[in-house]
Amino acid sequence: MDKRYIDKILSKYNEPSGKLLGILEDIQEKEKYLSKEALKYVSEKIGVSFSQIYSIATFYSFFNLQPVGEHIISVCMGTACHVRGAVEILNNIQYLLGVGVDESTEDGKFFLTTEDKHFSVNTARCFGCCSMAPVVRIDDKIYGYVKIKDLPKILKEYGWGKK
Ligand code: FES
User: Fold this and answer.
1) Domain boundaries of the chain, sorted by first residue
2) What does the alpha-carbon distance between residue 88 and residue 65 come to, in Å, rounded to a whole number?
3) Does the first or last residue of the chain, that is N or C, have fewer Cβ atoms within 10 Å of its Cβ?
4) What does the alpha-carbon distance between residue 119 and residue 71 come to, in Å, rounded to a whole number?
């Protein structure tokens, strides 16, 4: 962990202790995940307990607490998406990427990461666009009305199948 970039992020905020979400988002944007070291460092720097910061990081499903692949695929498992085939979408993504082992983590999330670390797959609760169910997010892009037959085309946008 490079403390300099965290210092830089903290310097953007006047009252960092009240801006934890923004700080954690900025760190994740840079590192793609929140390491324990980074959380401890933030805790020391802004005087908020590690347990408080950790509970925020684990509460929000968009925070990752372990290293992940270059592209993160999140399959929504909220009710609307679930009834419109989210499980089948997830299973097919796993099949196409060749990932099938559930690597549950201490924060209760799981990431299935391809051997080449190009993709990580996980699930999310709801992206707030239920009318487009089933919904899949890849990095910052939302795909709605996803059909199983569309998956290869979508994944190819991120380099799937090139190797
Ligand atoms: S339930 Fe999937 S976006 Fe809301």
Assistant:
1) 3-59, 71-156
2) 26
3) C
4) 5
Cα(73) to centroid(ligand 1), Å: 15
Nearest ligand 1 atom to the CA of 79 is 1
Mind listing the pLDDT tens digit for each residue in 109-155? 677 889 898 999 988 889 999 999 999 999 989 999 999 999 999 99
Give the pLDDT of residue 65.
87
What is the pTM assigned to this prediction?
Answer: 0.72
**Under a CB-based contact definition with an 8 Å cutoff, are residues 116 and 161 in contact?**
no
pLDDT tens for 21-39 read: 999 999 998 888 899 999 9
Does ligand 1 have an atom closer than 6 angstroms to the CB of 90?
Answer: no
Task: Please work out whether the CB of residue 127 comes within 6 Å of at least one atom of ligand 1.
Answer: yes
14: left (phi over 0), alpha (psi -120 to 50) or beta: alpha
Name the residue among 59, 60, 63, 85 with its Cα closest to residue 72: 63
- Per CATH, the number for 71-156 is 3.40.30.10
